Amino acid sequence: MKARRRSSDSSLLVRFSGTERGSAHARWYQTIADHYDKMYDPKRATRADAFLRHLFLRHAVGPEVLDVACGTFAIDIPLVKRGYHVAGRDRSEEMLRVARRNLRKAGVTADVSRADMRSLRLGRRFDALLCLGTAFNYLASPADANKALQTFRDQIRPNGVQRPKNVRAEVDYQSVDGTRIAIFAFNEQDVRSRIHHARFLTVVQRRDRIDIGFDEAPLHIWKKEELAQALRAARLRPLEWWGDLRLGARYERSRSPRMVSVSTPVDV
Predict the structure, then answer these.
(1) By CB count within 10 A, which of 36, 50, 180, 252 is most buried?
(2) Using CA atoms, how far apart are residues 147 and 141, in angstroms rounded to an integer?
(3) For residue range 159-169, what is the model confidence (pLDDT) as tens digits?
């Protein structure tokens, strides 16, 4: 559903749009792809680099890395610069377009293309697999989550490591070209079914035009013991944990816990 209107009291052209539930914010990523890295904490790549550097050294991770939800590739580029061979996959072609642009700007190359983490078939195995942000949470059904975990295991070499992470955020941002983006989250948790309903109202102003979009997607809320059980069922052994998520707790961007798991394949 789309409509354009100009109110009698406004000089701005306003467009309203909505999306069908369950599309995993596909059009939302199209809207914010060019601004994603600066909107969502520009220092996150630096912090992630330091964490991954120590993690990879601690587990003697080899050079082959697969990021199953690479987005703009901002977190992966430091790995490439340090000599890792990173393959990036993502469902959003718009985010991958930005990823390729970021690689060109950094003067490095990587294997980046569109794919779904539930059905990855790259024809080779990796020393480490990354699944960052809320990407894994979008697999709201147990069947989809199990497919992804089985796929993860099939892509990792024996003694390789897998790292899924959960995190959410809201933003109010202005780019250097004057584009203004405000994202308002109307989130709701169904504690009984462990589903977080992520609803975003995104307002983008470019000069004399305002685009207003509404997007919604269900995200699964993983508890530590539940994720550990799913990992073991996929023949992945948890090695390290950080944090946990509290069902029903109010989300606060600067204080809410994030859950991180590092796992390795179990030999059959």
Answers:
(1) 36
(2) 10
(3) 777 766 543 33
Which one, of 162, 110, 156, 116, lies nearest residue 135 by Cα? 116
For domain 37-167+222-265, give the CATH number: 3.40.50.150
180: exposed, middle or buried (C-beta count within 10 Å: 0-12, 13-18, 19+)? middle
Between CA 43 and CA 41 the distance in angstroms is 5
**Count of CA atoms in the C-beta half-sphere (13 A) of 209:** 5
Smallest CA-to-CA distance from 162 within 189, 180, 142, 135 is with 135
Sheet containing strand 126-131, edge to edge, reads 111-114, 85-90, 64-67, 126-131, 156-164, 260-265, 236-242
Start and end residues for every CATH 3.40.50.150 domain found in the chain: 37-167+222-265
